[in-house]
Amino acid sequence: MEHLSQLRRTGLFESRAPRYTSYPPATQFRPTVDGAVVGGWMEALDPGTPVSLYVHVPFCRRLCWFCACRTQGTQSLKPVADYVQALLVELRQLRARLPQGITLSRLHWGGGTPTLLTPALIALLADAIRAAFPFREGAEFSVEIDPSEIDAPRMAALVRAGMTRASVGVQDFDPQIQDSIGRPQSFALTARAVDLIRDHGIAGLNADILYGLPHQTGARMADTVQKLLALSPDRVALYGYAHVPWMSRRQVMIPEAALPDGEARLALFDTARALFLDDGFRQIGIDHFARPDDGLARAADQVRLRRNFQGYTDDGAEVLLGLGASSISRYPQGYAQNAPATGAWLAAVRAGHVPVTRGHAFGPEDGWRGRMIEALMCDFRIDPADIQARFGLTPDLQSRILAPLLDRFGPAVALRDGALVIPPEARPLTRLIAQALDAYAAPEGGHSAAV
What we know:
Layout: H1 2-9, H2 35-43, E1 51-57, E2 59-60, E3 72-73, H3 78-97, E4 104-111, H4 119-132, E5 135-145, H5 152-161, E6 165-171, H6 175-181, H7 187-199, E7 204-211, H8 218-230, E8 235-240, H9 262-278, E9 282-284, E10 288-290, H10 295-301, E11 306-308, E12 311-313, E13 319-323, E14 328-331, E15 334-338, H11 342-350, E16 356-361, H12 366-379, E17 381-382, H13 384-391, H14 395-409, E18 414-416, E19 419-421, H15 430-435
Parallel strand pairs: 1-4, 1-13, 2-3, 4-5, 5-6, 6-7, 7-8
Antiparallel strand pairs: 8-10, 9-10, 11-12, 14-15, 15-16, 17-19, 18-19
Helix pairs in contact: 3-4, 4-5, 8-9
């Protein structure tokens, strides 16, 4: 109870802090970064730099109410096929602007629902990507799979295309909760999809579940986690549902009165966390879990865990190229986001333009502030010696930056062997502590809930 009182005194349950999958967060992106700016960034890229590629497929057969991603519904495959053709055009334009010699260390297809693509479209897109950007040795190719939109022909096509990891969205297995978020998906349907993945020789399996949903209780959360464990994933993302109906209008369908409050959300997370740990998972960062032999766990052990728009990753690539509507790229000079609306993106691509409409050019403090935040989010510690070696910060400046954290958060942070550390009992505060390092943060932030 005293621990809960301490968390309450920090303002955790009333605060809103970014998830810090980028620094600065995407809410700070501005139209000053456009296609002309990013074209220069592309041409300046070092061809020896490892690159990751993210492909966004925004279409869904159903629009889940909880989702705040840029998606659109379709009952026809024609807009999907047209979209893939436009992806091929953008890919050729990207290849023409980048230096020769670029190779991929990671490829991820997200959405939306990438598995809406037919086997022929899967092969067409995958072949075009490989022709434009050869894979590095050991490259990983992951795909988000909707259990209601996958069958043997599509799975076989993905395997032929080189998929090495599948990511399955679960959210929650309770029927009442599924009804309240517009996501009907039985355990049997999910289990069939997982069997299909395993039968096709895919060893890497991610799963996503949510806490903080309407009608969730500790017992229901425990039941969902136990069912998920029966499917034997090797990675799990346990995300907190962010209720932002002013940003995602479909969320008005969700019964707001049935949402748990901040303290109940934390209890739900703790229930799930305990079950994952009891089953032998390692906690990775603030909201991921992995088997000890998984790549994320090894990256955490070796202090090379990273944070990007897909969450936690062991991908060391400094450059991320985003393909498709609303996708975000990261260059050494800054972030660039494609036009969010599919129609605007299509028009720009067909006109031969770089379809970027906003972004952020890194300022003089963004590098070291971003690294400090990433270190907190990944490792729960900041090593001033590492920051000084990377960015040339003076000890005086570092102390002036870190001292307010010690003053504000008291026992939630500590100095150990010269490093600032968040102890295990204070880790629910990680995003809030990171926000104190964010030079762009407004007093209330306007971002998704911290817990």
